[in-house]
Amino acid sequence: MIVVMQLGASQGQIDTVCEVIRRHGAEPLVMPGEDRLAIGVPAALSQDQRVSLETALGLVEGVSKVTQTSSPYKLASREFYPESTQVTVKGVQIGSDTFVVMGGPCSVESYEQFRASADMVKSAGAHILRGGAFKPRTSPYSFQGLQQEGLKIIKQVSEETGLPTISEVMSADMVESVAAHVDILQIGARSMQNFPLLIEAGKSMAPVFLKRGPSATVDEFLLAAEYVLSQGNPNVILCERGLMAFDRAYTRNILDLAVVPVLQESSHLPVVVDPSHGTGVARYVAPMAKAALVAGADGIMVETHPDPKAALSDGSQALDPTQFAALLADLRRIAPVVGKRL
Ligand code: PEP
Ligand code: MN
Questions:
Q1: For residue range 180-194, what is the model confidence (pLDDT) as tens digits?
Q2: Which residue segment(s) compose the domain that 34 sits in?
Q3: Cβ-based neighbours of 44, under 8 Å, separated by 6 or more
Q4: Quick one: 57 and 183 in the same domain?
Q5: Among 143, 181, 185, 282, whose CB has the most other CB atoms within 10 angstroms?
Q6: Alpha helices (runs of H) in 270-335, residue ranges in sequence order
Q7: pTM > 0.90: yes or no
Q8: How far is it, in rounded angstroms, from Cα 208 to Cα 172?
Q9: Residue whose CA is at the smallest distance from ligand 1 atom 6
Protein backbone atom coordinates (compact mmCIF):
# COMPACT_ATOMS: atom_id res chain seq x y z
CA MET A 1 0.00 0.00 0.00
CA ILE A 2 1.25 3.50 -0.83
CA VAL A 3 -0.22 6.69 0.62
CA VAL A 4 0.27 9.69 -1.67
CA MET A 5 0.17 13.02 0.17
CA GLN A 6 -1.32 16.21 -1.26
CA LEU A 7 1.02 18.86 -2.66
CA GLY A 8 2.33 20.89 0.25
CA ALA A 9 1.12 18.49 2.95
CA SER A 10 2.39 19.62 6.35
CA GLN A 11 4.86 17.73 8.54
CA GLY A 12 2.10 17.31 11.10
CA GLN A 13 -0.13 15.58 8.52
CA ILE A 14 2.76 13.31 7.46
CA ASP A 15 3.41 12.41 11.11
CA THR A 16 -0.26 11.58 11.63
CA VAL A 17 -0.25 9.21 8.62
CA CYS A 18 2.86 7.49 9.99
CA GLU A 19 1.22 7.13 13.38
CA VAL A 20 -1.92 5.58 11.86
CA ILE A 21 0.22 3.10 9.91
CA ARG A 22 2.18 2.17 13.04
CA ARG A 23 -1.07 1.60 14.93
CA HIS A 24 -1.88 -1.03 12.30
CA GLY A 25 1.33 -2.88 13.04
CA ALA A 26 3.43 -1.73 10.06
CA GLU A 27 6.49 0.48 9.85
CA PRO A 28 5.86 3.46 7.51
CA LEU A 29 8.39 4.27 4.84
CA VAL A 30 8.57 7.96 3.93
CA MET A 31 9.46 8.38 0.25
CA PRO A 32 10.06 11.98 -0.81
CA GLY A 33 9.12 12.36 -4.47
CA GLU A 34 9.86 15.01 -7.08
CA ASP A 35 6.71 17.02 -6.40
CA ARG A 36 4.79 15.19 -3.69
CA LEU A 37 5.63 12.89 -0.84
CA ALA A 38 4.44 9.30 -0.57
CA ILE A 39 4.43 6.96 2.41
CA GLY A 40 4.84 3.26 1.80
CA VAL A 41 3.43 0.47 3.94
CA PRO A 42 5.89 -2.34 3.19
CA ALA A 43 3.97 -5.10 4.90
CA ALA A 44 1.58 -7.81 3.78
CA LEU A 45 -1.63 -6.85 5.56
CA SER A 46 -4.64 -9.06 6.02
CA GLN A 47 -7.85 -8.03 4.28
CA ASP A 48 -9.28 -6.75 7.57
CA GLN A 49 -6.16 -4.76 8.47
CA ARG A 50 -6.07 -3.25 4.99
CA VAL A 51 -9.68 -2.11 5.08
CA SER A 52 -9.27 -0.70 8.58
CA LEU A 53 -6.07 1.14 7.62
CA GLU A 54 -7.61 2.51 4.43
CA THR A 55 -10.60 3.81 6.37
CA ALA A 56 -8.40 5.45 8.99
CA LEU A 57 -6.18 7.05 6.36
CA GLY A 58 -9.22 8.40 4.54
CA LEU A 59 -9.89 10.55 7.62
CA VAL A 60 -6.41 12.09 7.77
CA GLU A 61 -6.08 15.56 6.26
CA GLY A 62 -3.41 15.98 3.62
CA VAL A 63 -3.85 12.52 2.12
CA SER A 64 -4.38 12.66 -1.65
CA LYS A 65 -4.91 8.97 -2.37
CA VAL A 66 -4.19 5.46 -1.13
CA THR A 67 -3.10 2.95 -3.78
CA GLN A 68 -2.57 -0.79 -3.59
CA THR A 69 0.76 -2.07 -4.85
CA SER A 70 0.89 -4.95 -7.25
CA SER A 71 4.04 -6.76 -6.14
CA PRO A 72 3.74 -9.53 -3.56
CA TYR A 73 7.18 -8.66 -2.18
CA LYS A 74 7.63 -5.37 -0.35
CA LEU A 75 11.10 -5.00 1.13
CA ALA A 76 12.72 -6.30 -2.09
CA SER A 77 10.63 -3.98 -4.25
CA ARG A 78 11.91 -0.88 -6.01
CA GLU A 79 8.45 0.60 -5.66
CA PHE A 80 9.10 1.04 -1.95
CA TYR A 81 12.85 1.50 -2.07
CA PRO A 82 13.66 3.38 -5.30
CA GLU A 83 17.35 3.70 -4.51
CA SER A 84 19.65 0.84 -5.56
CA THR A 85 21.12 -1.13 -2.67
CA GLN A 86 24.87 -1.55 -2.40
CA VAL A 87 26.26 -4.48 -0.48
CA THR A 88 29.76 -3.76 0.77
CA VAL A 89 32.10 -6.64 1.55
CA LYS A 90 35.54 -5.74 2.86
CA GLY A 91 35.60 -2.57 0.75
CA VAL A 92 34.15 -4.20 -2.39
CA GLN A 93 30.86 -2.53 -3.32
CA ILE A 94 28.40 -4.80 -5.08
CA GLY A 95 25.73 -2.74 -6.82
CA SER A 96 27.96 0.24 -7.59
CA ASP A 97 29.64 1.35 -10.83
CA THR A 98 32.29 -1.31 -10.20
CA PHE A 99 31.54 -4.53 -12.09
CA VAL A 100 32.41 -7.07 -9.42
CA VAL A 101 34.04 -10.32 -10.49
CA MET A 102 33.89 -13.36 -8.21
CA GLY A 103 36.11 -16.24 -9.23
CA GLY A 104 37.29 -19.52 -7.81
CA PRO A 105 36.73 -23.24 -8.00
CA CYS A 106 33.43 -25.04 -7.72
CA SER A 107 34.84 -26.98 -4.76
CA VAL A 108 37.65 -26.37 -2.33
CA GLU A 109 39.75 -29.51 -2.89
CA SER A 110 42.91 -28.89 -0.86
CA TYR A 111 44.89 -26.01 0.60
CA GLU A 112 47.26 -26.04 -2.40
CA GLN A 113 44.44 -26.02 -4.99
CA PHE A 114 42.56 -23.23 -3.19
CA ARG A 115 45.65 -21.10 -2.62
CA ALA A 116 46.55 -21.44 -6.33
CA SER A 117 42.95 -20.46 -7.17
CA ALA A 118 43.22 -17.38 -4.96
CA ASP A 119 46.48 -16.39 -6.65
CA MET A 120 44.93 -16.64 -10.11
CA VAL A 121 41.86 -14.69 -9.00
CA LYS A 122 44.00 -11.99 -7.45
CA SER A 123 46.49 -11.67 -10.28
CA ALA A 124 43.68 -11.38 -12.84
CA GLY A 125 42.31 -8.45 -10.82
CA ALA A 126 39.07 -10.10 -9.69
CA HIS A 127 37.49 -8.98 -6.42
CA ILE A 128 36.04 -11.92 -4.50
CA LEU A 129 37.14 -15.55 -4.05
CA ARG A 130 34.55 -18.31 -4.26
CA GLY A 131 34.83 -21.98 -3.30
CA GLY A 132 32.36 -24.59 -2.12
CA ALA A 133 33.02 -26.48 1.10
CA PHE A 134 29.55 -28.05 1.28
CA LYS A 135 28.49 -29.21 -2.17
CA PRO A 136 24.86 -29.84 -3.12
CA ARG A 137 25.52 -32.64 -5.62
CA THR A 138 22.83 -34.30 -7.67
CA SER A 139 24.19 -37.72 -6.73
CA PRO A 140 25.06 -38.74 -3.16
CA TYR A 141 28.02 -40.64 -4.64
CA SER A 142 29.64 -37.49 -6.08
CA PHE A 143 32.27 -35.50 -4.15
CA GLN A 144 30.41 -33.73 -1.32
CA GLY A 145 33.10 -31.16 -0.53
CA LEU A 146 35.71 -30.98 2.26
CA GLN A 147 33.01 -29.50 4.52
CA GLN A 148 34.39 -28.17 7.84
CA GLU A 149 37.96 -28.66 6.65
CA GLY A 150 37.09 -26.70 3.49
CA LEU A 151 35.79 -23.78 5.57
CA LYS A 152 39.08 -23.63 7.46
CA ILE A 153 41.03 -23.56 4.20
CA ILE A 154 38.85 -20.72 2.88
CA LYS A 155 39.44 -18.67 6.00
CA GLN A 156 43.18 -19.29 5.96
CA VAL A 157 43.58 -18.39 2.27
CA SER A 158 41.44 -15.28 2.75
CA GLU A 159 43.70 -14.16 5.59
CA GLU A 160 46.81 -14.84 3.53
CA THR A 161 45.64 -13.06 0.38
CA GLY A 162 43.24 -10.42 1.74
CA LEU A 163 40.53 -11.58 -0.69
CA PRO A 164 36.93 -11.49 0.56
CA THR A 165 35.25 -14.90 0.23
CA ILE A 166 31.94 -16.54 -0.56
CA SER A 167 30.83 -20.11 0.09
CA GLU A 168 27.58 -22.03 0.15
CA VAL A 169 25.61 -22.83 3.27
CA MET A 170 23.16 -25.69 2.81
CA SER A 171 21.22 -25.80 6.07
CA ALA A 172 19.90 -23.46 8.73
CA ASP A 173 21.98 -25.03 11.50
CA MET A 174 25.19 -24.31 9.57
CA VAL A 175 24.64 -20.57 9.05
CA GLU A 176 26.58 -19.48 12.11
CA SER A 177 29.53 -21.72 11.41
CA VAL A 178 29.80 -20.81 7.71
CA ALA A 179 29.40 -17.10 8.54
CA ALA A 180 32.31 -17.39 10.98
CA HIS A 181 34.60 -18.56 8.15
CA VAL A 182 33.51 -16.61 5.04
CA ASP A 183 32.37 -13.08 4.14
CA ILE A 184 29.32 -13.89 1.99
CA LEU A 185 26.81 -16.71 2.53
CA GLN A 186 25.81 -18.36 -0.72
CA ILE A 187 22.38 -19.93 -0.85
CA GLY A 188 22.40 -22.33 -3.77
CA ALA A 189 19.82 -22.70 -6.50
CA ARG A 190 18.52 -25.92 -4.95
CA SER A 191 18.04 -24.17 -1.61
CA MET A 192 16.30 -21.04 -2.87
CA GLN A 193 13.08 -22.08 -1.19
CA ASN A 194 14.59 -23.65 1.91
CA PHE A 195 12.63 -21.27 4.11
CA PRO A 196 14.23 -22.14 7.49
CA LEU A 197 17.63 -21.51 5.84
CA LEU A 198 16.48 -18.17 4.41
CA ILE A 199 15.17 -17.13 7.83
CA GLU A 200 18.39 -18.09 9.59
CA ALA A 201 20.47 -16.26 6.96
CA GLY A 202 18.20 -13.27 7.50
CA LYS A 203 18.95 -13.31 11.22
CA SER A 204 22.67 -13.30 10.58
CA MET A 205 23.73 -9.91 9.25
CA ALA A 206 26.22 -11.47 6.81
CA PRO A 207 25.72 -10.62 3.13
CA VAL A 208 23.59 -13.27 1.43
CA PHE A 209 24.14 -14.31 -2.20
CA LEU A 210 20.86 -15.85 -3.26
CA LYS A 211 20.87 -18.00 -6.38
CA ARG A 212 17.69 -18.32 -8.43
CA GLY A 213 16.15 -21.77 -8.39
CA PRO A 214 16.37 -23.69 -11.69
CA SER A 215 12.68 -23.17 -12.34
CA ALA A 216 11.83 -20.24 -10.09
CA THR A 217 9.69 -17.40 -11.38
CA VAL A 218 10.82 -13.83 -10.75
CA ASP A 219 8.17 -13.43 -8.05
CA GLU A 220 9.27 -16.63 -6.31
CA PHE A 221 12.89 -15.46 -6.48
CA LEU A 222 12.10 -12.05 -5.00
CA LEU A 223 9.86 -13.57 -2.34
CA ALA A 224 12.80 -15.79 -1.32
CA ALA A 225 14.88 -12.60 -1.00
CA GLU A 226 11.99 -11.12 0.99
CA TYR A 227 12.37 -13.92 3.57
CA VAL A 228 15.96 -12.82 4.23
CA LEU A 229 15.11 -9.10 4.21
CA SER A 230 12.13 -9.60 6.50
CA GLN A 231 14.45 -10.86 9.25
CA GLY A 232 16.32 -7.55 9.23
CA ASN A 233 19.25 -8.44 6.98
CA PRO A 234 19.35 -5.87 4.14
CA ASN A 235 22.48 -7.32 2.49
CA VAL A 236 21.02 -9.51 -0.23
CA ILE A 237 22.58 -10.06 -3.67
CA LEU A 238 20.51 -11.79 -6.37
CA CYS A 239 22.16 -14.26 -8.74
CA GLU A 240 20.84 -15.60 -12.04
CA ARG A 241 22.49 -18.97 -12.76
CA GLY A 242 20.42 -20.45 -15.54
CA LEU A 243 17.05 -22.14 -15.71
CA MET A 244 16.17 -25.78 -16.29
CA ALA A 245 16.92 -26.42 -19.96
CA PHE A 246 14.62 -28.36 -22.28
CA ASP A 247 17.64 -28.99 -24.51
CA ARG A 248 20.67 -30.03 -22.51
CA ALA A 249 22.57 -31.31 -25.52
CA TYR A 250 24.49 -28.04 -25.84
CA THR A 251 24.22 -26.15 -22.55
CA ARG A 252 23.58 -27.27 -18.98
CA ASN A 253 20.96 -24.62 -18.25
CA ILE A 254 19.30 -21.70 -20.04
CA LEU A 255 20.94 -18.50 -18.86
CA ASP A 256 18.15 -15.94 -18.50
CA LEU A 257 19.96 -12.69 -19.20
CA ALA A 258 16.70 -10.83 -19.75
CA VAL A 259 16.03 -11.26 -16.05
CA VAL A 260 18.83 -8.75 -15.30
CA PRO A 261 16.88 -5.64 -16.41
CA VAL A 262 13.66 -7.26 -15.16
CA LEU A 263 15.08 -7.67 -11.65
CA GLN A 264 16.66 -4.23 -11.70
CA GLU A 265 13.32 -2.69 -12.59
CA SER A 266 11.40 -4.66 -9.97
CA SER A 267 13.97 -4.62 -7.18
CA HIS A 268 16.68 -2.41 -5.72
CA LEU A 269 18.92 -5.38 -4.89
CA PRO A 270 22.20 -5.96 -6.79
CA VAL A 271 22.09 -8.56 -9.58
CA VAL A 272 24.97 -10.89 -10.39
CA VAL A 273 25.13 -13.42 -13.25
CA ASP A 274 26.75 -16.87 -13.05
CA PRO A 275 27.65 -17.82 -16.64
CA SER A 276 29.44 -20.99 -15.46
CA HIS A 277 26.40 -22.89 -14.20
CA GLY A 278 24.37 -20.93 -16.75
CA THR A 279 26.11 -22.69 -19.64
CA GLY A 280 28.10 -25.58 -18.16
CA VAL A 281 30.71 -25.20 -20.91
CA ALA A 282 33.97 -23.31 -20.37
CA ARG A 283 34.13 -21.85 -23.90
CA TYR A 284 30.65 -20.31 -23.56
CA VAL A 285 31.44 -18.64 -20.24
CA ALA A 286 33.33 -15.59 -21.56
CA PRO A 287 30.69 -14.59 -24.16
CA MET A 288 27.93 -14.79 -21.53
CA ALA A 289 30.05 -12.97 -18.93
CA LYS A 290 30.56 -10.10 -21.37
CA ALA A 291 26.85 -10.14 -22.25
CA ALA A 292 26.02 -9.90 -18.52
CA LEU A 293 28.17 -6.77 -18.21
CA VAL A 294 26.47 -5.18 -21.21
CA ALA A 295 23.03 -6.23 -19.92
CA GLY A 296 23.68 -4.12 -16.83
CA ALA A 297 24.51 -6.77 -14.24
CA ASP A 298 26.41 -5.65 -11.15
CA GLY A 299 28.88 -8.49 -11.44
CA ILE A 300 29.56 -12.09 -12.35
CA MET A 301 30.47 -15.26 -10.51
CA VAL A 302 32.77 -17.45 -12.60
CA GLU A 303 34.16 -20.88 -11.78
CA THR A 304 37.90 -21.12 -12.28
CA HIS A 305 40.46 -23.82 -11.57
CA PRO A 306 44.27 -23.91 -11.72
CA ASP A 307 43.87 -27.18 -13.68
CA PRO A 308 40.25 -27.71 -14.84
CA LYS A 309 40.90 -31.27 -16.09
CA ALA A 310 41.77 -32.30 -12.54
CA ALA A 311 38.76 -30.62 -10.88
CA LEU A 312 36.65 -32.76 -8.54
CA SER A 313 33.47 -30.96 -9.62
CA ASP A 314 32.33 -28.82 -12.57
CA GLY A 315 35.70 -28.98 -14.37
CA SER A 316 34.02 -28.73 -17.77
CA GLN A 317 32.81 -25.21 -17.03
CA ALA A 318 35.90 -23.91 -15.20
CA LEU A 319 38.22 -21.33 -16.77
CA ASP A 320 41.96 -21.92 -16.48
CA PRO A 321 44.28 -19.07 -15.41
CA THR A 322 44.94 -17.91 -19.00
CA GLN A 323 41.25 -17.93 -19.97
CA PHE A 324 40.26 -16.11 -16.78
CA ALA A 325 42.91 -13.40 -17.21
CA ALA A 326 41.84 -12.93 -20.86
CA LEU A 327 38.20 -12.57 -19.78
CA LEU A 328 39.07 -9.90 -17.24
CA ALA A 329 41.11 -8.00 -19.82
CA ASP A 330 38.11 -8.04 -22.20
CA LEU A 331 35.70 -6.95 -19.45
CA ARG A 332 38.03 -4.10 -18.53
CA ARG A 333 37.91 -2.87 -22.13
CA ILE A 334 34.11 -3.14 -22.41
CA ALA A 335 33.17 -1.73 -18.98
CA PRO A 336 33.68 2.02 -19.73
CA VAL A 337 31.33 1.75 -22.72
CA VAL A 338 28.48 0.86 -20.36
CA GLY A 339 29.52 3.28 -17.61
CA LYS A 340 31.22 0.69 -15.42
CA ARG A 341 34.73 -0.07 -14.30
CA LEU A 342 36.48 -3.12 -12.97
C1 PEP B 1 27.88 -23.55 -7.15
O2 PEP B 1 27.95 -22.31 -7.15
O3 PEP B 1 28.88 -24.29 -7.18
C4 PEP B 1 26.56 -24.20 -7.25
C5 PEP B 1 26.34 -25.41 -6.76
O6 PEP B 1 25.65 -23.42 -7.86
P7 PEP B 1 24.06 -23.61 -8.08
O8 PEP B 1 23.46 -23.60 -6.73
O9 PEP B 1 23.70 -22.40 -8.90
O10 PEP B 1 23.86 -24.89 -8.85
MN1 MN C 1 29.76 -25.59 -9.39
A1: 999 999 999 999 999
A2: 2-67
A3: 72, 74
A4: no
A5: 185
A6: 275-279, 282-295, 321-334
A7: yes
A8: 13
A9: 188
